[in-house]
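Need a sequence for this fold. Nothing fancy.
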């Protein structure tokens, strides 16, 4: 007979409480283990390790380093973290983070070029304290110059460069931008944008060169070459791989937003605050191949080391999760050797959990996740995904191999730390001269009733308009702040008004009033120049069902017309505006786009110091009912645009 022992009283309750505590504590301990950095017990590599030898080939250095890495060290390389989410600088080394970015206007407390240099050097030094001393990538949206840093040269946004149709100019601008980035320690540029906008109601239209795949291919490839130019000057058709096996570059270029961006349908946005940005692109495989893919093929052929996938859907699938387009087409068909990075929160936004989104994105072929915040959870989720088999170690090895290939190609392991002495290149005289040239070449003359060019010796000029003395509006968004600056604070450069004053003769009278309230209108001025346009905006915050001049600008032009014999309208905008009914009232019309910091470039073409050579990079609609306009310039309603692509009076 078996004897049963019965536990009575307080002892039984103590045992039960203990068991409950164990059950509760175990998963917490497990989660903390997954989340925490796991310093490798392995020793540091020997000083003669192949990956530390600058004379070894890039492929052999990648192979050697990858063979020495633990799983945790590989996972860290796949994390792209926003700088404000890293509260302990040691975490860069402890988690082995692969990259850091400044997003949405994130800047140092000392918002100067030197402040940026010290900030980035701090992250760099932390990364070099890790076991394998793998340098970080530091990325930023340098869309039209290194606009994050006050004092940098601000070039025209891409829509203006598209109007120049000049790949040599574009390559020079990319090179100048890379030089100003490198001086502050930035080594990764989220440019060029190769989107093809067919509906200018989209708030990101100005970030693209054109809606024409051929022109976007030509200019995009030139921008990649300029960004990734080595210390050995490269011919227009060369890539870093053509210079030599160990040629290194200063800044990595990013071709974005792969793929189909610009073809989204109005009203299809997944973001409740937007209308078309992050929306749906519905196209056939043939249209993808013929229309959207060529600019990315050109960028890959030019040596682009990173590609950013967009936040849009193509035929119902988010690009971040599309294995066919990311792995099959980009990596397979195009032979892309660099790494694929997701856009802001793009791996997570459309899944029920961060874990699910991460797994889908990595398995689709995304190599680096722009988290952009919680790197601890990313590490935990990646460890768990490998343990459960949801992500294979071979997929991780492929991703990390691509990231390391880019880092070695950029010479990050062999580069000395940038110093304060190198900051002199920022806003240099040569770069300002280049920007001024670009402004003149980007301007498009759309109407001219025997008014232009003006004589510098003209007697009396009235200048008015919301954008006349406003460098912030000239520069647009992605300048110091994510949404830009409406005004002149924190910005150097020269306004268009200042450029006019610097161009005319000493005998010319130039009067300015923003709203055209001029005191004496009995005797009309020889000419009135209205400089008007849109306030700065970024991304979907610029989605607008009917982009046109606001009533204040229209009233200003009307008052200026009453006070002047002739009126010239200069539009400062990142896209065409609906002006069909107003155009007959104006004597001349100039589209300046978003020219950047050098307003003298507009004065140069107004006064004939430089000829008008720019032409429209995309069709200019007569009404919103014509939108979208396809690549063959066929409008939605079948009527003709106000101006066709490539129009411009010369």
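Here you go.
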């Amino acid at each position: 007979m078996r004897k049963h022992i019965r536990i009575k009283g307080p002892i039984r309750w103590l045992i039960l409480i203990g068991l409950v505590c164990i059950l509760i504590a175990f998963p917490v301990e497990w989660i903390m283990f997954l989340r925490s950095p796991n310093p490798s017990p392995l020793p540091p590599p020997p000083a003669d390790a192949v990956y530390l030898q600058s004379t070894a080939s890039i492929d052999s250095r990648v192979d050697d380093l990858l063979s020495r890495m633990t799983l945790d060290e590989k996972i860290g390389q796949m994390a792209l973290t926003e700088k404000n989410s890293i509260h302990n600088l040691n975490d860069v080394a402890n988690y082995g983070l692969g990259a850091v970015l400044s997003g949405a206007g994130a800047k140092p407390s000392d918002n100067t070029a030197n402040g940026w240099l010290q900030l980035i050097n701090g992250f760099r030094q932390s990364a070099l304290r890790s076991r394998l001393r793998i340098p970080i990538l530091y990325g930023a949206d340098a869309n039209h110059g290194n606009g994050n840093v006050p004092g940098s040269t601000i070039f025209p946004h891409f829509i203006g460069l598209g109007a120049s149709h000049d790949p040599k100019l574009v390559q020079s601008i990319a090179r100048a931008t890379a030089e100003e980035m490198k001086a502050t320690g930035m080594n990764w540029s989220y440019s060029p944008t190769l989107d093809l906008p067919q509906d200018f109601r989209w708030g990101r239209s100005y970030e693209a060169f054109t809606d024409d795949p051929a022109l976007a291919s030509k200019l995009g490839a030139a921008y990649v070459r300029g960004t990734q130019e080595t210390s050995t000057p490269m011919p227009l058709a060369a890539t870093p791989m053509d210079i030599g096996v160990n040629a290194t570059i200063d800044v990595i270029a990013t071709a974005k937003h792969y793929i189909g961006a610009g073809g989204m349908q109005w009203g299809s946005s997944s973001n409740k605050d937007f209308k078309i940005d992050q929306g749906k692109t519905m196209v056939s495989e043939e249209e993808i191949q013929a229309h959207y893919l060529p600019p990315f093929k050109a960028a890959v052929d030019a040596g682009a080391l990173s590609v950013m996938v967009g936040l849009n859907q193509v035929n119902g699938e988010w690009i971040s999760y599309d294995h066919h387009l990311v792995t099959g087409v980009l990596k397979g068909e195009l032979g892309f050797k660099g790494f694929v990075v997701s856009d802001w929160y793009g791996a997570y936004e459309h899944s029920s959990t961060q874990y699910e989104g991460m797994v889908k994105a990595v398995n689709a072929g995304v190599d680096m996740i722009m988290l952009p915040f919680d790197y601890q959870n990313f590490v935990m989720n990646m460890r768990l995904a490998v343990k459960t088999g949801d992500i294979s170690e071979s997929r991780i090895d492929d991703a990390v191999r691509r990231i390391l290939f880019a880092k070695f190609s950029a010479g990050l392991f062999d580069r000395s730390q940038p110093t304060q002495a190198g900051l002199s290149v920022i806003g240099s005289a040569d770069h300002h001269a280049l920007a001024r040239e670009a402004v003149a070449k980007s301007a498009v003359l759309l109407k001219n009733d025997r008014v232009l060019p003006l004589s510098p010796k003209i007697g009396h000029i009235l200048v008015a308009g919301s954008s006349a003395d406003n460098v912030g509006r000239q520069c647009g968004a992605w300048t110091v702040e994510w949404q830009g600056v409406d005004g002149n604070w924190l910005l150097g450069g020269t306004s268009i008004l200042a450029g006019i004053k610097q161009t005319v003769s000493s005998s010319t009278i130039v009067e300015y009033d923003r709203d055209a309230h001029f005191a004496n209108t009995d005797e009309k001025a020889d000419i009135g120049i209205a400089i008007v346009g849109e306030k700065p905006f970024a991304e979907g915050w610029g989605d607008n069902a009917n982009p046109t001049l606001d009533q204040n600008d229209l009233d200003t032009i009307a008052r200026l017309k009453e006070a002047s014999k002739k009126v010239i309208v200069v539009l400062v905008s990142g896209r065409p505006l609906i002006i069909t009914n107003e155009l007959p009232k104006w004597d001349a019309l100039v589209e300046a786009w978003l020219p950047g910091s050098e307003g003298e470039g507009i004065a140069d073409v107004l006064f004939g110091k430089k000829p008008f050579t720019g032409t429209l990079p995309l069709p200019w609609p007569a009404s919103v009912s014509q939108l979208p306009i396809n690549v063959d310039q066929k409008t939605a309603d079948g009527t003709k645009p106000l101006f066709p692509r490539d129009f411009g009076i010369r």
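For context: Confidence is low (pLDDT under 50) at residues 1-7, 22-30, 232-247.
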